[in-house]
Design brief:
The chain is mainly α. Helix content is 46%, strand content 6%. It has a three-stranded antiparallel sheet. A two-stranded parallel ribbon has the order 1-5. It is globular, with a radius of gyration of 20 Å.
């Protein structure tokens, strides 16, 4: 008997606008720090927090955490959150998503892109390793929903760009019909992480004019 294919989850809410930030080079440089990336992720996923709370989660002192929070606030990644407590300063993420378009620049701008992408990659590798360590303890339905796949397809640069845009659009559409990050969700609903990495297979393209024989 043929097994039925899983059907797409139907949304019960109207699509919403996903708030996002496109940082300029100065803001991107400030964000390209492992601690700040982790803090911003925590505020997006878990909602508002104080410097003391974040320090406890990160294993840092509150002075260091406060410094990084001020840097994030200076460049518009986070903002003060209204709270009943007047004793502590609460912070929240200003956006759900950071968009960093692929750069065609060279020199210092390219170096900045590489620095930011390296910081993001290090964070993502750590998250994937933690997810793998927790995999055996997941409920069966969440193990079925998880994946670690890689697919290699011969393509031109133009075809590859179209494909990555299509995949990104699908992911963003799912985000638009989901509850905002950091807010209470329905039972059984948790933050689900999707990491999209797309690149020419290493070693198959010339990396300089000399290598290309031009």
């Amino acid at each position: 008997m043929k097994k039925p294919r899983p059907q797409p989850v139907q949304s019960v809410t109207a699509p919403r606008t996903v708030s996002r930030v496109v940082p300029d080079p100065t803001a991107l440089k400030a964000l390209a720090h492992p601690v700040r990336l982790r803090m911003l992720g925590m505020l997006r996923i878990d909602g508002p927090a104080t410097a003391t709370q974040l320090a406890a989660r990160l294993g840092l002192n509150s002075g260091a955490t406060s410094y990084h929070l001020r840097q994030l606030a200076q460049y518009g990644f986070i903002e003060e959150a209204p709270h009943a407590s007047r004793r502590d300063r609460w912070w929240r993420a200003s956006h759900e998503l950071t968009s960093v378009p692929a750069s065609e620049a060279e020199g210092e701008a390219l170096d900045l892109d590489l620095t930011f992408n390296q910081a993001v990659l290090s964070l993502q590798v750590g998250q994937m390793q933690q997810a793998l360590e927790e995999y055996a303890e997941l409920p069966a339905e969440w193990r079925k929903a998880s994946a670690a796949n890689d697919v290699i397809i011969p393509m031109t640069a133009e075809q590859a760009e179209v494909l990555t845009r299509q995949l990104t659009d699908i992911i963003l559409e799912a985000m638009r019909v989901a509850p905002p990050l950091g807010e209470a969700t329905a039972p059984g609903m948790v933050p689900f992480s999707i990491m999209l990495h797309a690149f020419p297979y290493p070693g198959r393209l010339p990396h300089s004019e000399e290598d290309g024989g031009s």
